[in-house]
Q: What sequence folds into this?
């Protein structure tokens, strides 16, 4: 059986990654730099420290990372202060279904608090969540397993139950998050957002679902025949 479900936030529960990509590209362009779509997508889903490393290695040591980062955050913050981040298809249906069946769930996001808390609150999703782990709560960001391991610790403290990672589904949209979920011993489920499933991800991904609502029959299937490991 599935004991719990963990979610990434940006690009998985919330349709916020597209704006983030545009914000980074606009901020870089203002200083004369061009960030390609594929490159910008590649560093989403992890902590600022890892983003800094990826961008510096990709763009060179002279790239004004801190200035671009601050401007990108400002662009995103201004937009989301006036517009709640859209909720991904199937999210409310799945979260309601999990709550009715007593299956706890948590968010493990690389986004720092309080921004993550504010986004989830504005979207109306906080009441469905038993725990929220943000990027500044863990030592190592994705693809390290820290955020998902911390989410399970907090779920255990909240519910008084012990969760076996192999009985936990993780919904993710990025390869860094999928690697983190696999490293934590959980079952990584890809819900494609900005990037489609790739063949080289097959050893990492447990399965692929078109939307979060598709996790409902997946979870129900564990009561019968055990899906592939």
A:
């Amino acid at each position: 059986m599935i004991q719990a479900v963990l979610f990434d936030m940006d690009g998985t529960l919330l349709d916020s990654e597209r704006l983030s990509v545009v914000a980074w590209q606009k901020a870089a362009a203002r200083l004369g730099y061009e960030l390609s779509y594929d490159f910008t997508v590649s560093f989403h889903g992890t902590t600022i420290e890892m983003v800094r490393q990826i961008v510096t290695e990709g763009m060179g040591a002279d790239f004004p990372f801190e200035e671009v980062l601050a401007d990108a955050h400002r662009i995103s913050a201004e937009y989301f202060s006036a517009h709640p981040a859209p909720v991904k298809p199937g999210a409310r249906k799945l979260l309601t279904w999990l709550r009715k069946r007593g299956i706890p769930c948590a968010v493990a996001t690389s986004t720092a608090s309080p921004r993550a808390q504010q986004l989830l609150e504005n979207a109306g999703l906080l009441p469905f969540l038993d725990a929220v782990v943000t990027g500044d709560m863990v030592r190592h960001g994705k693809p390290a397993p820290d955020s998902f391991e911390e989410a399970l610790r907090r779920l255990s403290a909240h519910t008084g139950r012990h969760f076996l990672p192999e009985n936990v589904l993780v919904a993710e949209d990025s390869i860094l998050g999928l690697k983190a979920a696999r490293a934590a011993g959980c079952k990584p489920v890809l819900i494609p957002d900005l990037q489609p499933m790739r063949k080289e991800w097959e050893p990492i991904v447990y399965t692929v679902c078109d939307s979060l609502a598709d996790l409902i029959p997946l979870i129900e299937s564990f009561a019968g025949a055990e899906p592939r490991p």
